[in-house]
Fold 2,4-dienoyl-CoA reductase.
Amino acid sequence: MTHVLEALKLRDVVLRHRIAMPAMCQYSARDGMPSDWHLVHYGTRAVGGFALINLEATAVAPEGRITPYDLGLWHDGQVAPLARIAQLIRAQGAVAGVQLAHAGRKGGIAAGWEAQRSLTADEGGWTTCAPSALAYGEGYASPTALMADEIAAIVGQFVAAARRACAAGFQTVEIHAAHGYLLHQFLSPLANQRNDAYGGSFENRTRLVREVVAAVRAEWPERLPLLVRISATDWVDGGWCVEESVELCRILKTLGVDLIDVSSGGLIPTATMPVGPGFQTGFAERIRREAGIPTATVGLITTPAQADHIVRTGQADLVMIGREALRNPYWPMQAVQALGGIGEWPRQYLRAAPLGTVSRQLIQEKA
Ligand SMILES: Cc1cc2nc3c(=O)[nH]c(=O)nc-3n(C[C@H](O)[C@H](O)[C@H](O)COP(=O)(O)O)c2cc1C
């Protein structure tokens, strides 16, 4: 029976176990460039034993940022500072990943710890774009509906960002098609009311996601895995639903996607979600079984036993630990120990390793 401490191989990349950190915005970048905060934040989680660290939503264009403080990969100057972070992550034996994103109508807002509203141009905001000119909700400005040539340009922006991610030494790329951001806006009939080739039928609403995935896959090295994060449901009648998610994931598999990171919600601010421990694991399980593709699950997974149970019962191949990783960067190291595994302690910390745990030591020299 597969368990959470077992390695996971995706193409040529091996995750040392199945505990990963999902993308979590830090709102600490300037002009898309990472700060010292990012180096310390991600470096600490790599030391803490995560198998995969997904860098936060990293914008493929300036206007694709959620806030003015998001990371970006829209120009070559952003490669070197991100390469430093990727190198630090890899040096700790973790896999370095990055989430590529375009916020669409949810862009141009204040940092996550402030009231969520569109910023004015004076405050650093911008005019947002979307499939249709429909605002996300109260406090959010109306976006402009994208023209066909602008949609094609966005596909190119994802491809260029993936090329830069590779140059920066990232080993996985995750395309952000969840949480109500641009690609999800195209998927959902509640945000997409176009009547051209990108709106209406399932085939049309999924077209942009399929185009981005196919184009990124063609750019992203064959030996490296490609991930896609989706919201399995909008949690609203008449919205994007789990049946459509399963169907989309079947197609994404044929396009060379290696793992679906299954989340939910984010498209409609008033949607009610039955939030509780593991409340999204059922979606990951269903997509894994019905679409026949590896999945990651995320959402209120906080104990080692819970993470192990998810993998042992075949609900997901990978478990993402979000806010718990913000509370405790050493969660994976402690989980490995709690589940009776062999921890990878950095040599600098070996004298603090609990008795009975054995270090695979000197992992820094492998990277
Ligand atoms: C501070 C913060 C920032 C986040 N930023 C992102 C992001 O950039 N991309 C994304 O897909 N999800 C983002 N999320 C969602 C998390 O990846 C995760 O799905 C969510 O927190 C649920 O998992 P948890 O209960 O383990 O925290 C963010 C969550 C938090 C708390």
